[in-house]
Amino acid sequence: MELELADVRLPEHIEIALYRIAQEAVSNAIKHGKATRLFISLSARNDRVTLAVKDNGAGFSLASRGTGGMGLSIMKYRAEIIGASIDIRSRVNKGTQVVCALPIPAECARVKY
């Protein structure tokens, strides 16, 4: 796990949405992908927050799944309600990568230690 947001505190609704997206991505990786390794990162660079969840699971073909299952739809919806983009890439036998990115909101608090 990698975390690079030491000086940024996002609004609570955004933190919760990002947490739920990560939770769903991890759940899918374990439950459906049978992943044995996961990499989760959350970073803030160039006024953007990026959440990435990568796994080494079974992966799937997006073309054969159509719009995907409920989990994929829920992640897309959660990203949409916070104004984020979400990119889900998967390759059979190569794992899946979920990347959610959004601009750091102007009202975002900077945490000073």
Features:
113 residues, alpha+beta, Heat Shock Protein 90, five-stranded mixed sheet, 3 helices, 32% helix
Largest sheet: 5 strands, mixed
Q: Terminal Cα separation, in Å? A: 22 Å
**What structural class should be given to the helix and strand makeup?**
alpha+beta
Helix percentage range: 25-40%
* CATH fold name: Heat Shock Protein 90
Number of strands: 7
Mean pLDDT: 87
| Total domains | 1
As a whole number of angstroms, the C-alpha radius of gyration is: 14 Å
| Uncertain segments | none
Q: Major sheet: order of its strands?
A: 1-3-4-6-5
Name the CATH homologous superfamily.
Answer: Histidine kinase-like ATPase, C-terminal domain
Instruction: Count helical runs.
Output: 3
**Share in β-strands:** 25-35%
**Shape label:** elongated
CATH architectural label: 2-Layer Sandwich
CATH class: Alpha Beta
**H and E string:** EEHEEHHEEE
Please give the structural blueprint.
Elements (H helix, E strand, L loop, with lengths): L1 E3 L3 E2 L2 H20 L6 E8 L2 E8 L6 H4 L4 H12 L3 E7 L3 E9 L5 E2 L3
Parallel strand pairs: 1-3
Antiparallel strand pairs: 2-7, 3-4, 4-6, 5-6
